[in-house]
Design a protein that fits this description.
This protein has 332 residues and is an alpha/beta fold. The protein has helices spanning 5-31, 41-54, 84-99, 109-114, 117-122, 124-135, 141-154, 170-181, 194-198, 201-205, 244-253, 270-277, 305-313, 320-323, and strands at 68-71, 139-140, 185-193, 212-224, 227-238, 259-263, 284-289, 316-319. It folds into 2 domains: 35-80 and 168-323, HAD superfamily/HAD-like (Rossmann fold), CATH 3.40.50.1000; 83-156, no CATH class. It contains 14 helices and 8 strands. The protein has an 8-stranded mixed beta sheet, sandwiched between helices. The chain starts with a helix and ends in a 9-residue tail after the last helix. Mean pLDDT is 91; it is low at 1-29. One of its GO terms (molecular function) is hydrolase activity. Residues 1-28 form the signal peptide. It comes from Corallococcus sicarius. Keywords: Hydrolase, Signal.
Length: 332
């Protein structure tokens, strides 16, 4: 049956008026490398910097080998209330207490089980090392990694009720990919455990395990049970926090990063952000401010050290409330 002129017009109108604009909208969305970022000074600053350092002939142009971007993890790439490795430690302590109920009355286990941070802090390094020995050490590397994988598979955020791996920040995932698309290496440099983060870094962030820097325990390669294994010892080899971060970055990367991102909480990223400004040539410092109580958690440092350093150094400060259209990669 021949199609009438009016019907043909309707079909053409539907195709041209609906399908083509939809395609155009999809293309426009694809053209925006940071769709979860609100249009404004922060997004413009990021895109402007990347454009300058990747454009041939620009006075700020950087060859690909110098395009190194380093990100803190907790509170920068995913949520840190609670710190995920802290939740892992607490779960391990609960399991130990189930096997040995006497631990429920013994410090520092009692403090962990009761969420008594003040008592835990009073215990100092001795308490920390006892907890690390019980939950992170005196085992093979193989066993530790298996325990972390199992924890991440089953654990849920106590308030948001979803797996921790769904609580990466969507805008930061987009930023990581945007930088990689422009020839940047993306690294993690965190105070968290290097082996803990390497379990999930590639799956969650697209960052290979060998590009993760963190705090570490000493290890030995020795015979255990008739096998040669990597044995985790109960002593800290490197603390990758505060002034330890530039040291860790230099040890693992061998060149100064040009793009560095951290967050406001403990001042742990100030040294790493500041160190990147000491390099010759262009650099970019990004500081995440947790000011969105509705979609995440609102908190900052009592002394305001990170925000003060950002103001003095001219760093770009991200307001989660104002600069991010969405927060999490999953659906809390």
């Amino acid at each position: 049956m021949p199609v009438g002129r009016q019907a043909l017009f309707v079909v053409l109108w539907l195709v041209l008026g609906l399908a083509f604009p939809a395609t155009a909208r999809a293309q426009a969305a694809q053209a925006d490398p940071l769709p979860s970022w609100s249009d404004g000074p922060v997004k413009q600053a990021i895109v402007g910097f990347v454009s300058r350092v990747t454009t041939q002939g620009s006075p700020d142009f950087l060859p690909v080998e110098e395009r190194v971007a380093v990100f803190d993890n907790d509170g920068t790439l995913w949520q840190e209330k609670p710190a995920v490795q802290g939740a892992f430690l607490a779960e391990r302590v609960r399991a130990l207490a189930d096997k040995d109920p006497s631990l429920r009355k013994k410090q520092p286990y009692k403090a962990v089980l009761e969420g008594d941070l003040d008592t835990l802090m009073e215990g100092g390094e001795k308490a920390l090392m006892e907890l690390l020995a019980a939950t992170h050490a005196n085992m093979t590397q193989e066993q530790f990694l298996a325990d972390v994988r199992e924890f991440l598979k089953t654990a849920r955020h106590p308030k948001l009720g979803v797996p921790y791996t769904q609580l990466a920040y969507q805008p930061m995932l987009e930023l990581l990919q945007y930088l990689r698309d422009n020839g940047f290496q993306t690294w993690i440099s965190s105070g968290g455990g290097i082996d803990f983060m390497r379990v999930f870094s590639e799956e969650v962030y697209g960052i290979a395990p060998q590009q993760v820097i963190g705090s570490s325990l000493a290890e030995k390669y020795e015979e255990r049970g008739g096998r040669q294994v990597l044995w985790r010892e109960p002593r800290v080899d490197h603390l990758n926090d505060k002034e330890g971060k530039p040291v860790g970055n230099d040890l693992h990367i061998g060149r100064s990063p040009v793009f560095v991102a951290g967050n406001v909480r403990s001042g742990g990223d100030i040294a790493m952000l500041g160190a990147s400004q000491e390099r010759r040539g262009p650099s970019f410092q990004l500081l995440i401010h947790h000011d969105d109580a509705a979609r995440e958690f609102a908190y900052e440092e009592k002394d305001g050290a990170s925000l003060r350093a950002a103001k003095e150094g001219g760093w770009t400060v991200v307001s989660m409330r104002d600069d991010w259209k969405t927060v999490f990669s999953g659906t809390p």
